[in-house]
Amino acid sequence: MIEGHAIHRLVFPCRRIFGGWIKAMTGEHVAVQPTHWRIWPR
After folding, report:
1. Which residues are 20's β-sheet partners?
2. Cβ contacts of residue 14 below 8 Å, gap of 6+?
3. What 3-state DSSP class applies to 16?
4. CA separation, residue 28 to residues 5, 6, 16 (Å)
């Protein structure tokens, strides 16, 4: 994810929905713009 001029790694899995991204476990909306994706282990 890019925040300002820095790149950060999220510590939780997210899911893309219409209009943005949510935390996969809670459904909470997160304001992120991901730059890379990976599959999270279960």
Report:
1. 17
2. 21, 22, 23, 24, 30, 32, 34
3. strand
4. 25, 23, 12
Question: What is the pTM for the complete model shown?
Answer: 0.70
Convert the pLDDT of each residue in 1-42 to its tens digit: 777 788 888 888 999 999 999 999 999 999 887 877 788 887
- Comparing CA positions, the residue from 40, 42, 32, 37 lying closest to residue 6 is 32
Residue 34: partners with Cβ closer than 8 Å, 6 or more residues away: 1, 10, 14, 21
- Contacts (Cβ under 8 Å, ≥6 apart) of 9: 1
Q: How far apart are CA 5 and CA 18, in angstroms?
A: 26
